[in-house]
Amino acid sequence: MSQTPCCPRPRPLPRQTSRGLTMVELLCCLCISGLLLAGALPSLRDLRLRQTLDAVAAMLETDVQYARSLARATDRTVRLAVQATADGGSCYVIHSGPAGACSCDASGAARCDEPAQLQRVQVQAATAGVRISTASRSLVFDAGKGTVTPTATFVVTDSEGRALHQIVNVLGRTRSCSPSGLAGYRRCA
């Protein structure tokens, strides 16, 4: 005779696998991510500032060529004047008419006296971290000869002290160099 057990044998429960992270694991991941981000932020700021420096220098070079072309196309004298703004930034205006006829006000908007005509204004607010300066207050682009007087060196400087020089020769051609030897630029002689 066979015996049947009174109670069937219990089956083992299926093994439960954990899904997700524990709070401790999550906090460790957040802590490590925060440390990595804190280490990367200064280099990201530096990268943004360097790109702004490059962009402002390239825009200035383009605008010098624009002023030269505009003088030739309209057969009129065109000027490019650089000024400091009240907030510690800088601006430049491209205009026709006499020297000093156009200027930037405290907000960076351009204002021109008659008979000058404003062609372009570019403002670099102090908060942008990049400033343009030059010893020449105004460049004159001669329509007849296609020349620029005086020759000038524009210095584009960022808040970290890095600088790019945009050197404009008598023919209105611009070359770029860096006094500190920034990557991608020749060292200024």
Describe, in plain words, how this protein is organized in 3D.
The protein is an alpha+beta fold. Helices cover 28% and strands 30% of the residues. It has one helix spanning 23-74; strands spanning 78-84, 90-96, 102-104, 110-112, 117-124, 130-134, 138-141, 148-149, 152-158, 163-168, 174-177. The strands form 3 sheets. A 5-stranded antiparallel beta sheet has the order 5-2-1-7-8, covered by helices on one side. The protein has a 4-stranded antiparallel beta sheet with strand order 6-9-10-11, covered by helices on one side. A hairpin with a 6-residue loop joins strand 7 and strand 8. It starts with 22 loop residues before the first helix and ends in a 12-residue tail after the last strand. The mean pLDDT is 87.
Provide key terms for this protein:
single chain, five-stranded antiparallel β-sheet, four-stranded antiparallel β-sheet, alpha+beta
SSE topology:
Elements (H helix, E strand, L loop, with lengths): L22 H52 L3 E7 L5 E7 L5 E3 L5 E3 L4 E8 L5 E5 L3 E4 L6 E2 L2 E7 L4 E6 L5 E4 L12
Antiparallel strand pairs: 1-2, 1-7, 2-5, 3-4, 6-9, 7-8, 9-10, 10-11
Task: Tell me the β content.
Answer: 25-35%
Can you count the helices? 1
The CA-CA distance between the termini, in Å, is: 111 Å
Q: Count of DSSP E strands?
A: 11
Coarse structural class: alpha+beta
Give a short account of the largest sheet.
5 strands, antiparallel
String of helices and strands: HEEEEEEEEEEE
Could you give the order of strands across the largest sheet? 5-2-1-7-8
What is the C-alpha radius of gyration, as a whole number of Å? 32 Å
Q: How much is the average pLDDT?
A: 87
- Overall helicity: 25-40%
Low-confidence segments, given as residue ranges, are none
Multimer state: single chain
Shape: rod-shaped
Protein name: Type II secretion system protein H
Domain General secretion pathway GspH: 60-172
Pfam family, one: GspH
Subcellular location: Cell inner membrane
